[in-house]
Amino acid sequence: MREGAAMAAGDGAARVRVGILGATGTVGQKMIRLLQRHPWFDIAEVGASERSAGSSLADLWTPDGLGPRDPGVDDLVMKSLDEPWTSPLLLSALPSSVAGPLESKLASRGHLVVSNASAHRMDPDAPLIVADVNPDHLSVLDGPAHKNGGILTNPNCAVAGLVTALAPLHRAFTLERAVVTTFQAISGAGRPGPSAAALVENVLPFIPGEEIKFTTEPQRILGTLEDGAIQPAPFQIGATATRVPVLHGHLVSVSAAFADTPTVNQASDALLGFQSAVGAPLPTAPQSPIHLFEEDDRPQPRLDRDLGDGMTVSVGRLRACEALDLKFLVLSHNLIRGAAGAAILNAELCYVRGRIPTLAPA
Amino acid sequence: MREGAAMAAGDGAARVRVGILGATGTVGQKMIRLLQRHPWFDIAEVGASERSAGSSLADLWTPDGLGPRDPGVDDLVMKSLDEPWTSPLLLSALPSSVAGPLESKLASRGHLVVSNASAHRMDPDAPLIVADVNPDHLSVLDGPAHKNGGILTNPNCAVAGLVTALAPLHRAFTLERAVVTTFQAISGAGRPGPSAAALVENVLPFIPGEEIKFTTEPQRILGTLEDGAIQPAPFQIGATATRVPVLHGHLVSVSAAFADTPTVNQASDALLGFQSAVGAPLPTAPQSPIHLFEEDDRPQPRLDRDLGDGMTVSVGRLRACEALDLKFLVLSHNLIRGAAGAAILNAELCYVRGRIPTLAPA
Amino acid sequence: MREGAAMAAGDGAARVRVGILGATGTVGQKMIRLLQRHPWFDIAEVGASERSAGSSLADLWTPDGLGPRDPGVDDLVMKSLDEPWTSPLLLSALPSSVAGPLESKLASRGHLVVSNASAHRMDPDAPLIVADVNPDHLSVLDGPAHKNGGILTNPNCAVAGLVTALAPLHRAFTLERAVVTTFQAISGAGRPGPSAAALVENVLPFIPGEEIKFTTEPQRILGTLEDGAIQPAPFQIGATATRVPVLHGHLVSVSAAFADTPTVNQASDALLGFQSAVGAPLPTAPQSPIHLFEEDDRPQPRLDRDLGDGMTVSVGRLRACEALDLKFLVLSHNLIRGAAGAAILNAELCYVRGRIPTLAPA
Amino acid sequence: MREGAAMAAGDGAARVRVGILGATGTVGQKMIRLLQRHPWFDIAEVGASERSAGSSLADLWTPDGLGPRDPGVDDLVMKSLDEPWTSPLLLSALPSSVAGPLESKLASRGHLVVSNASAHRMDPDAPLIVADVNPDHLSVLDGPAHKNGGILTNPNCAVAGLVTALAPLHRAFTLERAVVTTFQAISGAGRPGPSAAALVENVLPFIPGEEIKFTTEPQRILGTLEDGAIQPAPFQIGATATRVPVLHGHLVSVSAAFADTPTVNQASDALLGFQSAVGAPLPTAPQSPIHLFEEDDRPQPRLDRDLGDGMTVSVGRLRACEALDLKFLVLSHNLIRGAAGAAILNAELCYVRGRIPTLAPA
Question: Does the model's pTM come out above 0.90?
């Protein structure tokens, strides 16, 4: 995967310095793992809250099961978020409360902020992008609000998989409504997340603030560009979000109705035919954005979340629904396809589209 | 609960001898626990497959976490299923493949078979009853096919809770369609059930043969009696059934649309106003068939499955659905409200309605 | 159990007002559940940190799965720990850091503080008591340091079960050394306890500060009274303490060597012959302090923790050890036999021994 | 790792055809994953019970989470175990009951059988080898019982890690006795293994036939070669074996006493200084057979089982024991270091020592 992509970028292309905001959280740590041998990007700066400033990543590290870290990365010294950043590309894994004003400030200083936070996902001038699905929404950044900098966001970790699976179906058959129920993994809750006392041998039927994102974010991602602005798609999604005792991998049960009701075979063809809309190989893109299981009992979180190095969205149990048109299940790795990998893929999209800013000397 | 019920039956009323078919399985064992101090019924016979015939219950027992067994029960000697049974009331916890022909034969011999098996649930002359919901369907047994004996069934363990919650909503607002996703507990799979290797840190997205029951069984239970036959209700339910690492308690996520769209408050009033349709106290009936949680994060399987000694159906998170009309969650104890307790409640209904047959001497 | 005990105390005996320190934690909440229908004691006061003062128990409650609470208890208003307490008997479920100075102050004011905290367990004038095992250590409170008040402690939640199983073996065969490895439950860690992210599909091989208690506390509990002071027993116990994904019930694997090496049969006889040393029925005492399993695969935490309403200590797999003399497993409910129930049993011991102080009016 | 090893073997060395007995079980499947790109060995034959004969591996496959399989391997057609085998090297992952007579027969026909089964582990002429620890025991195969063929075994999956950790300590300080308690993973039980109903939120305190292996196998592995026979080491190990809700990775708690009592530092030095006794690089050998953690809370099964691609044994919490001399914890991946990887490492040892037989044409 990476070799081909590296060739696409060309050996002569300049490497890009990247800063990571919120480098000590689960998503920030995963970004570091995914970036440490990246063909285009170098981790140049890392930062988090005031408390950690001045420590090295190695000092702050607690075992997280997210994979090994390279020695060079371990020596990076944490900055305070308020310090000046010098990298043109900033990846943000900040909590939304912090992300809101800070990302805006950094964008106004000319940084391209590729953010996993929810703060700006519905901002008219900050495109909400799943690179395989709606890369052309990047042109929202062409507007007058941006000289060089800007904010680019990826969706909620469970929406990421869902909207990828819905994209080819919506484009072929026009989604009207969908009912979804999620089985979300523990790592989606960040640190420390739910206690073992709460979640062992149990399901938590509520995730604060989560369900509304299933209604609004897919409308925007699958919306249309009109005069440089996004018109949300007019379908309605109603969601129930739960937490289950699974470490990684958000599973979503979907029932959907379409304007042009497809047969199961037609829907299957649409899913199998889906290809990334980027049109160029990206290092973090999986060979296939969607894998359609024919086995009855798949996808399963523990068995299938790592497909395509965690970037492939699994769809399974595609069948007719007695109440709407189609039923199916969607699985995606919440930390990779749903967060760290999604942001990096968006950054790679910016790279191949020539949108990494040149930062004026401070 | 039981004291009041015992009074209703009267001290002078004759106790009924009960036989349990399939006494060694999870549901059969739970029936034994629930019956061993019953105010009306005495466990007189127990039976299972040929292999266990002649052994005492104590000999066959493996620890099951279903509660203590009384000494008198431990001494019961297992019959072969083929032997003659002498109890007028037979509770069946047989696997469906065995239940089909055997229950028919026993009914034709004059026994009232109250069955948890799925074999006869859609038979025109075997009513499918949730005692609190559709007790009057018992009159199906008045037809010419029955002299004394007959077969009475209760629904699938996950349907039992769902249909109880849907009943007051359907009656008030006329259900048109519903999309449901289940989180089903391990004990619903019987023995040995899924392996730990399959289910630890995972969700199994498929339960063979399960989903169609959500479409057909509620139509029948909430159907209407016309000329002694059941006309199924014309609504459509589409289900996705999954297995989660929970021991007991099936959780169901529901989105539903109605002919007369209710507000959340109207739906809440309907649920709160629901009372058993039996009209007489039954020993196994909970004080309230439905408990409506107002807390955001309830019901939870581990915390709430034992409400009303496992016979109360919990409903929570009642709110508007963006895609249909209403969203909510339903939880019920799969072994009690969904199986053993459901069958016993149906037997108690037969008792107060005078339908326990007098068995002619063999 | 309780009926007999109530008779022993006599209908005419005065009820005792009890205050609970640390009423909002896991152990405090469990004390409330165990005390709310107690034949001798009335919950008169409850208190915890400053933050909760003035709220009712109902206001502060979060679902904890520890059982239902009586309405009368719900209305109790939390005191600040610094306020004057008026109950002669105080049960302490405080964290040790807070318990140290506060329990001393309350004892000096004439209260009998029956504490679950570790702060005073090794104090020469605060007996460390497992009521069934060493009730006579209560006479340590006769010393000049106490007018009326005093502090009485129970051991660590995992030591409680272990020392009960070791008591009859030590008395019969003189324990010399033991190696123990624990499998401790989540609820033993209090709130919030370990995160699900840390404990799902894992074992945590370290519990800070825990292992030393296995060395020191059994020495004291099984020590001898000489001139009103406890001489620790001279055996050596080396422990490894771990946390496993179990909700309640601490399992301990034990290998032990004795001065008079017993056969397995002799050890079995000693365990089976063990009876509470109190010599009077106590409401919270189980019918049998020790249950010896003969089945190979018992005790198991989930199946056996509730034996004797959580007050019976289960022993199983008693067999010869190739390296020392005997091997066996011990299981006890960490919140009941290991904490809340242990403290209440100690309070009941004080009651039948006439040691509840009369508190002078403030 | 593999590159260096391949160089050691030399580009000109002939590749060895390998047959896998018991190819459909958990260990057999793991062997296939580890061998499918092996620098010296080619999977030439696969076989299992009569039932699977004639099917391809792909036909029989169920998802097992053990990693991807190469297409070439998928096409291999299963033999019946009774058919003639043509590969000089046979890796056996058979159940012990089948392994006993079959492995003997195949050895007598001139095959070198490298077995993971327990059937021949204590046979005088079948060496029990952990390649890093006692490779010289291979000379047992020089005896008159073997012309070309023979049986070479690896230890029980939990003993494998334990004995690796004990080896440097025993050699430096002479082990006298040890008490061990295991926390064994689900995959160690093969298929289907314990049910979820048995193991969720629980610990199973008994594994049939397991504990005696901790007494006998380490004695043999750490025994001495005298006149071509193994004299078992005279230490005594007493074990308690349990099953915990962990997927892979056996954790063992150890307390040990030595003839020459080491300090913790001396023991630490011995562990850190341990190197494989093979004296040549093997493709499956980890860079370091033992990793000694200094962190208090390690090793943990889920975080550390994959160290060294599952071939490194983790030791942690090394400290003084109050009852014996030292306490520590050992973790190893039960399917790799404890089974499939152990057998392959033994096969590689045979390869570099020139012990792969030349099989006469049938």
Answer: yes
How far is A236 from A166, CA to CA, in rounded Å? 12
The pLDDT of D217-223, averaged and rounded, is 98
Q: Which long-range contacts (CB under 8 A, 24 or more apart) does A214-218 make?
A: A214/A156, A214/A158, A214/A159, A214/A162, A214/A180, A214/A182, A214/A238, A214/A239, A214/A241, A215/A239, A215/B322, A216/A122, A217/A121, A217/A122, A217/A128, A217/A155, A217/A156, A217/A159, A217/A163, A218/A155, A218/A159, A218/A162, A218/A163, A218/A166
| Closest alpha carbon within chain C to D197 | C302
Q: Which of B192, B196, B246 faces D245 most closely, judged by CB atoms? A: B196
Residue C200 with chain B: CB contacts under 8 Å: 201
A3 burial via Cβ count (<10 Å: 0-12, 13-18, 19+): exposed
CB C15 within 8 A of CB C75: no
Asked if the Cβ–Cβ distance from B329 to A183 is below 8 Å, we say: no
User: Which ipTM was obtained for this model?
Assistant: 0.94
CA distance D58 to D75: 7
Q: How much is the average pLDDT of C80-93? A: 96
In sequence order, the 6+-apart residues with CB closer than 8 A to the CB of A230 are A124, A127, A128, A137, A140, A220, A223, A224
Looking at the complex, report in whole angstroms how far the Cα of residue B112 sits from the nearest Cα belonging to chain C. Answer: 35
Cβ of C245 within 8 Å of Cβ of A186? The answer is no
**pLDDT tens-place string over residues C331-352:** 999 999 999 999 999 999 999 9
Distance, CA of C338 to CA of D54 (rounded, Å) = 58
Class of residue A304 by CB neighbours under 10 A (exposed 0-12, middle 13-18, buried 19+): buried
The neighbouring-strand residues paired with A46 are A20, A78
Asked whether the beta carbons of residue B196 and residue D193 sit closer than 8 angstroms, the reply is yes
Cis omega (within 30 of 0) on the bond before C299?
A: yes
The four Cα atoms B175, B180, B186, B189 give a dihedral, to 10 degrees, of 70
3-state helix/strand/coil string of A63-86: CCCCCCCCHHHHCCEEEECCCCCC
Identity of residue A282: L
Question: How far is the C-alpha of C357 from the C-alpha of C107, rounded, in Å?
Answer: 10
Looking at CA atoms only, how far is residue C185 from chain A in angstroms?
10
Rounded to the nearest angstrom, the minimum Cα separation between B198 and chain C is 13
Tell me, what's the pLDDT at D54? 93
A300 touches chain D (CB under 8 A): yes
Contact B247 D193 (CB under 8 A): no
